[in-house]
User: Fold these one by one.
Assistant:
Number 1:
Amino acid sequence: MKNVAVIGAGTMGNGIAHTFAQFNYKVNLIDISKASLKTGLATISKNLDRMVTKQKISESEKTVTLKNITRFTSIETGVKNVDLVVEAATENVALKTKIFKELDTICNTETILATNTSSISITEIAAVTKRPEKVIGMHFMNPVPVMKLVEIIKGYNTSNEVVETIVLLSKKLEKTPVQVNDYPGFVANRILMPMINESIETLYNNVAGVEEIDTVMKLGMAHPMGPLQLADFIGLDVCLSILNVLYKGYKNPKYAPCPLLVNMVMAGKLGVKSGEGFYDYSNHRKAEKVAKMFS
């Protein structure tokens, strides 16, 4: 397996493309937006520069990594003759099933189709294809080049052979794969999102302020980033989407999104990417500081 297509040039997509390319896989980075592709590649280049500065890679390794990435605006052209497709589009079930239905008709029959979904059922996504045994979840953590964990989610029909292939592939990327079963939120977000939601509820109920809540969790629980700042980093819209999936899947009130989170998303206060969330990132340096915390 040497040829990989990544669909989506956003935060997760460009991070996944960066990681594969750094380990000398040929990567087709696909996005319908030329501007997103340009921004995605610029982000990869900037992150590689940071790695060069920290002497984690050489300048020549940076050059090779960038040469391993080819940009496409057409899914049909971009997935031609690849061994693996990793979809990293927005966390929206309708969009993901649409993409997988299309991939199923245009990809080679042996191509493995993976999704970077952080909460949506792999079985549901696989059901729109004629190759459910070759559909799997490959949930990378953000920022992808730095974080070691990959949740490997086996759908109801995913074959053991495909699971073994993706586990081995993850290890070749120097990641730590952890296999989990296909239930809403899997493990990472089933545990993380209720904590973030409860932190927002704590703020909403005026128990304490933003910085006070984050300080308690950082100093008291040894978290590298407080839950409200982490929510900003993830994106409040993403947090809301995942909580909605959990609430729908488990029918349990404990997963119901806090009204404050709902209102902030409706108001466009999405965190770092919008310039404001629980913290103000209108100063570019502040946003850069948060982005570098896990680099």
Note: The first strand starts at residue 3 and ends at 7.
Number 2:
Amino acid sequence: MSLRKAYLLIFIILLVDQLVKIYIKTNFELEHEIRVTRWFRILFIENEGMAWGTKIPGTYGKLFLTVFRLLAVTAIGYWLWDSVQKNYSKYLIVSISLILAGAFGNIIDSVFYGVIFDHSNHQLATLFSDRPYGTWFHGKVVDMLYFPFIENATLPQWIPFWGGKTFTFFNAIFNIADMAISTGVGILIVFNKKAFAKPYDREDTVFKNTLD
């Protein structure tokens, strides 16, 4: 797979991710919800930290997280370039491209959204507002996809500690960028041997199949 095709895939994912986020920001108030089906909803929230709403404490926690993400994207970008140059498998290159696109998509929120949007509390946010809600590198990541497959179910009483309590199966709220990252990681796990096969191993296999 060529670097040009990998960049095209990354661009498409970034474009879709940002269009969806901008639409949600400018058409939904914070925590506004639309039920598409019983188990699929669009629920607008903003994530100030890492996955599952985890935050790094301290005054510079958010800045540290954003800078770390930028360094991680740089490393992943080099990994992609190196894998293409060494003719690694399409499984690996597609996976890296998905992970890179997802990481970069959320970085855009963290770096820019604080200075181009005003807040979404009880109002629709305005793009390129003259009263932004934050500063550079302190933007909030926009999440909106919610799939509560099992909601408000009650755990059996015999389960220690949690018996009798209610729970929701798959209560994560995420975005297109998160989906890209998860899909990329999933490909690496499921197709591990094919993804990390050495170029000469694949060439030898093709050569043997040709002889057979």
Note: The beta strands are 33-35, 41-47, 141-146, 150-154, 166-169, 173-174.
Number 3:
Amino acid sequence: MSGTFLRLAGAAAVAAQAVLAPVPCVAAPAPQRSVSQLLTDLQQLYRQTEQATETYNATAEKLQRQRARVSRLDGQLARARLALQDSRADAGRLARQQYQSSTGLGPYVRLLLARDPQHALDEGHVIGELARERARTVSRLTVTEQQKDALARAARKALDTQLALADRQKKQRDHVRSRLGDVERLLASLTSGQLAAIARLEQQGVARAQQRLTTSGALGDRPASPAGDRAVRYAMAQLGKPYAWGAQGPSAYDCSGLTSRAWEHAGTPIPRTSQEQWQRLTRVPLKQLRPGDLVVYFPEATHVAMYVGHGRVVQAPRPGERVRISPLASYPVLGAVRPDAPAPRAR
């Protein structure tokens, strides 16, 4: 952890020293904050950043689905327009035929004047069938017109939704960048001694939380399923790759990008974000944990890691860090979910 803080702050600290050259008038120093207060501030900023990242990821997923829907509707609308052209052509052909064969005499008059009434009746049957065909053509034309209009309205609405999602995604991206800037500014304001003290304090807190978890008997360690084993092996192969918000690999990951990609590789696609993983996957008690299960953190479910056994998880922790193995209690645990749990039986 100390290496992380030092890496994040390094470049910013150099720039800060260049800017803070001696000047004739020096402002009064700000009140000194304790190490514990600084750690609290940093943890809060990281949490806000990850929450903003997961919100951005959720919108990105919706935008991707919406783009697919717009494309599908555009295809359906194009086919409906072609069908409408065919229906109009059929209606026009029948209208011309009716005009060309019109005699001005009704069917009953033609029957009375016919020399061969039976022939006239047979001819009337054919004429009746042609009339029914005309009716079907007109009905088909009407239905196709309605379908085309409905698809055109749906396509316009879907495109409007896509544009709204794209605008929301841009605002959320800017919010993530703003949160990251807050983290960087705070780190750049700290000395190397403060950074080291913050890292030690955080490590001590994690060690205590991990000790409480392991001695409470609440943590289990069951064998992995075949799919869980594949997911773990994929996640472990990503060790050392950098955290990047919104990333799903293969060169970088955010927290849920790592877990969703690992389970996709294992043959079990799961939701993209940590919130959706918590909401939609089967929850399991920590006592029943097995490798491949996902551990979700914070009350808002804004962070997720993958259990690998023996009280450890593999995770993409936060900006400035790399995919690594960590104690399960690195953050406040909300609960755990199992991506390959069998679907509940219908009653």
Note: Residues 117-188 form the longest helix (72 residues).
Number 4:
Amino acid sequence: MRLSLTVTSESLPLARPFRISRGMKTVADVVVATISQDGVEGRGECVPYPRYGETIEETVATIENQRASIEAGAGRRDLLETMSPGAARNALDCALWDLEAKLTGQSVFELVGTDRPVRVETAMTVGLDTPEVMAKAARELATSPLIKVKVDATDSAAQLRAVREAAPLPRLIVDPNESWSISQVDDLQGLLLELRVDLLEQPLPADNDGALRGYVSRVPIAADEALHTLSDLAGLPDGYNVANIKLDKAGGLTAALALAEVAQARGMQLMMGCMISSSLSIAPAMTLAPRCSFVDLDGPLWLSRDREGGISGSEGYLTGPAPQFWG
């Protein structure tokens, strides 16, 4: 048995700018780890995220630091002990899952005991902009089953009204990306109900969300930036009702599966989220999608060109990648 590790970084252009309350991006910067054994390759992609202090260079270096252990046969459980959660571990973990699936002839869905869905309903994102521009974007998504609306603290009511008027039928997720205060959460409760919003995602800063302790929202609230790993669950304010799991935050599919199990046991609904990425990041995340009340995996649909054989999207639904693409 001969294992080898390869690490590369790529900048994938977006078809259009993606804007949230923290800024705008025009490319998806990703790192890909490839682990080979006997001519069979397993791949994993991650997105180093500046919000969490990650860079492309440091992520590549962190993966390179694991070369000796990976090539000596370290497995997914070993990485949980030797690496911190985050993008680097995610790439290696997903590469190991892919490699195991291809070596054993079993899909990752079979390995984790989950049925492979024929298609997955995903949120389609309306990026932050003026109400007029956001209405135009929402109108193009009006036949999708679920829309996610990026807002900030400046003009949320007008932005949300414009989106709902343009798209009266889809379920709505509102995502302020930590930009609101608790007074805004409180003041906008009536509007969120009026506009039939299904979920409010991380309205308060993750390091200043204590006001959600004991808070009873009229719309479910998801923890995103406030929830990375299993160890974060115990300290979450009880005002959060939904756990937004992302493989890059959790540090891989292995850790994400454990987080999902405990979050559900605590009575939380699950949401599967992603960074802007290629289908190589999204294919592993789809393993958890059947267990989730909300799925937000439209990352590859923002690219000007995705990886060949990747996930396809139409009318707010994702169809899995070609055989042998991943897992």
Note: The chain has two domains: 3-105, 120-319.
